[in-house]
């Protein structure tokens, strides 16, 4: 039993309800996409959110609703290429780009939790419409994050929690250092599961309890980061 929990912990640390649904069958994928329409007039702007390793898109529903309430169209998807032995981060990034294609986006911010942050980096690196990428307690894998960040031409904002086994003890700070426009922000007291919204029993069992107040703080900072990437001049003026 101890071995089983250790294996599960290793898997998670390796990258640990919408108003509409679109089925995307491009390139052989069978991914269901949930769209959260924004309440403002931001035609062509889109945020695409990627979940953590072996998780699902419902774990980012809270953040999607927060961003939609701020006026930005949001989309979540399930990464169908992942397997317990293969995170498929490159394929996941391309799947995020296909979501933006399918929804007719003109400006995109890619956001990802844990290993989903790697997919978001890949998407932002390869999509000329990208205005930036926001990672939520990113976990790198085999140096992919560092290599992608080094080639990234748009801003990278990393929101990070306290060091722990499920975020590789904040090893992703090396990723932000590689990005010419990279920066990270520590969410004081936040654990890995606070970056999901909602999280689940498995994450909390392996990575520690989540707290609603901390999770709300993460969503607020992610909202500010996304809006700052879409409207950098307005963001600077507001500060």
Key terms:
19% strand; 8 strands; single chain; globular; AB hydrolase-1 domain-containing protein; disordered C terminus; 8-stranded mixed β-sheet; Rossmann fold; alpha/beta; signal
Please report the total strand number as a whole number: 8
Number of helices: 9
Overall pLDDT score:
82
Report the CATH topology name. Rossmann fold
Radius of gyration: 16 Å
Outline the biggest β-sheet.
8 strands, mixed
Strand order of the largest sheet: 1-2-4-3-5-6-7-8
- What share of residues is helical? 25-40%
CATH level-1 class: Alpha Beta
Structural shape? globular
Q: Which structural category do the helix and sheet elements fall into?
A: alpha/beta
Distance linking N and C termini: 51 Å
Strand and helix order: HEEEHEHEHEHEHEHHH
Q: If classified by CATH, what would the architecture be?
A: 3-Layer(aba) Sandwich
Strand content: 15-25%
Keywords: Signal
Protein name: AB hydrolase-1 domain-containing protein
Organism: Marichromatium purpuratum 984
Signal peptide: 1-17
Brief write-up:
Keywords: Signal. The chain is of the alpha/beta class and about 240 residues long.
């Amino acid at each position: 039993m101890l071995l089983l929990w250790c294996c599960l912990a290793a898997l998670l640390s390796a990258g640990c309800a919408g108003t509409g649904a679109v089925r995307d069958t491009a390139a052989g994928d069978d991914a269901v996409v949930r769209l959260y329409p924004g309440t403002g007039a931001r035609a062509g702007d889109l945020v695409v959110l990627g979940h953590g390793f072996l998780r699902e898109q419902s774990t980012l529903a809270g953040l999607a609703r927060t961003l939609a309430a701020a006026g930005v169209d949001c989309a979540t998807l399930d990464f169908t290429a992942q397997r317990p032995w293969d995170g498929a981060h490159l394929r996941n990034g391309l799947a995020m780009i296909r979501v933006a294609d399918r929804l007719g986006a003109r400006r995109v911010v890619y956001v990802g939790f844990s290993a989903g942050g790697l997919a978001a980096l890949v998407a932002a690196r390869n999509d000329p419409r990208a205005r930036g990428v926001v990672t939520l307690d990113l976990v790198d894998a085999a140096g992919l994050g560092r290599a992608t960040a080094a080639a990234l031409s748009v801003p990278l904002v990393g929101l990070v929690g306290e060091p722990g086994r499920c975020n590789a003890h904040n090893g992703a700070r090396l990723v932000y250092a590689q990005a010419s426009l990279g920066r990270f922000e520590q969410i004081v007291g936040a654990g890995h599961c606070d970056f999901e919204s909602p999280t689940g029993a498995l994450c909390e069992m392996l990575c520690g309890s989540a707290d609603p107040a901390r999770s709300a703080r993460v969503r607020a900072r992610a909202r500010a980061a996304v809006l700052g990437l879409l409207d950098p001049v307005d963001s600077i003026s507001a500060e």
